[in-house]
């Protein structure tokens, strides 16, 4: 369950004060749009912690008890709060109840970048667990039956596709593609389908293939035989993940790959 889903579910039982970062000046722990839901005894979300969050929680709980009703407050992080960021944060406070749930879901849902993940093995499962908490929407494909877990996050869509490479043609534009199936033959077919789509539409900004440099050398030769140029092959990232992380455990690979995808969002 995402933080937003948890917030909305809890609203069915009691009201909260929703605290949002309206805008910032200079350095701040979180950007505009960050939010925190303050209930009588619980918190969901964060504004970055520290004394800013402590003060915001106190203000919100006063509003819950009907004592203070300031809709927006300005916090100077340096001298006033003793935080080293040194900037200024403007926080907006508003009461929320069960009747506001649908509107809040629409308003607070983050814009997510599409990721297509081919392969439901150990690394694929670990990667989905990491990406589910990040600004991505995941289309998860495998050719095997009954490979997906019974429950996945709301931003994960599971799809059986056989042959699996046929799913490439229907991917959302600007999808980041990760290829890690149980079969080298399937991996090769998916890479080829991605390169063909990239040739026709140029709308797959990242195509990543799990494996070693020797695996990629073998794939390069086979893909050249299928008519792909060196320039086209240069679009494929293999091995995947940020450099310098040597662990091969599924969770380690998942973190390294997620970091690489996040780096790409800024380019």
Question: What's the topology here?
Answer:
Layout: H1 3-11, E1 16-25, E2 35-38, E3 43-45, H2 50-64, E4 72-76, E5 88-96, H3 101-108, E6 113-118, H4 122-131, E7 136-142, E8 156-160, E9 176-179, H5 184-201, E10 206-209, H6 213-225, H7 230-233, E11 236-237, H8 250-265
Helix pairs in contact: 1-3, 4-8
Mind explaining what this structure looks like?
The chain is an alpha/beta fold and 267 residues long. The protein is built from 8 helices and 11 strands. The strands form 2 sheets. Strands 8-7-6-9-10-11 form a 6-stranded parallel beta sheet, with helices on both faces. The chain has a 5-stranded antiparallel beta sheet with strand order 3-2-1-5-4. Helix 1 (3-11) packs antiparallel against helix 3 and helix 4 (122-131) crosses helix 8. It is elongated and about 75 Å long. The chain starts with a helix and ends with a helix.
The CATH homologous superfamily of the largest domain corresponds to: NAD(P)-binding Rossmann-like Domain
Question: Please, how many helices?
Answer: 8
Distance between the termini: 30 Å
| CATH first level of the largest domain | Alpha Beta
> What string gives the helices and strands in order?
HEEEHEEHEHEEEHEHHEH
Mean pLDDT, as a whole number? 92
Count of domain modules: 2
Report on the biggest sheet: 6 strands, parallel
Gross morphology is elongated
Radius of gyration: 23 Å
Count the E strands.
11
Fraction of helical residues: 25-40%
CATH fold description of the largest domain: Rossmann fold
- The low-confidence runs, each spanning 5 or more residues with pLDDT under 50, are none
Instruction: Give the helix/strand class.
Output: alpha/beta
């Amino acid at each position: 369950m995402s933080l937003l889903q948890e917030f909305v579910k809890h609203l069915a039982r009691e009201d909260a004060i929703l605290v949002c970062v309206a805008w910032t000046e200079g350095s701040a722990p979180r950007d505009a749009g960050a939010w925190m839901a303050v209930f009588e005894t619980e918190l969901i979300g964060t504004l970055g912690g520290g004394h800013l969050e402590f003060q915001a929680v106190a203000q919100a709980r006063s509003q819950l008890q009907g004592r203070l009703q300031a809709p927006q407050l300005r916090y100077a992080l340096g001298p006033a709060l003793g935080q080293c960021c040194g900037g200024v944060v403007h926080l907006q406070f508003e009461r929320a109840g069960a009747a506001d749930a649908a509107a809040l879901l629409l308003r607070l849902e983050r814009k997510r970048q599409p990721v297509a993940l081919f392969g439901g093995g150990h690394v694929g499962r670990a990667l989905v667990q990491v990406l589910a908490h990040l600004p991505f929407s995941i289309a998860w494909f495998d050719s095997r039956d009954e490979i997906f877990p019974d429950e996945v996050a709301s931003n994960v869509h599971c799809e059986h596709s056989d042959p699996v490479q046929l799913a490439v043609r229907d991917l959302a534009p600007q999808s980041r593609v990760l290829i890690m199936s149980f079969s080298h033959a399937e991996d090769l077919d998916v890479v080829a389908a991605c390169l063909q789509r990239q040739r026709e539409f140029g709308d797959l900004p990242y195509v990543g293939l799990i494996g070693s440099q020797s695996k990629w050398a073998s794939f390069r030769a086979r893909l050249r035989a299928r008519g792909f140029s060196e320039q086209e092959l240069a679009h494929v990232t293999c091995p995947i993940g940020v450099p310098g992380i040597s662990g091969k455990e599924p969770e380690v690979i998942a973190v390294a790959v997620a970091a690489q995808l996040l780096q790409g969002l800024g380019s």
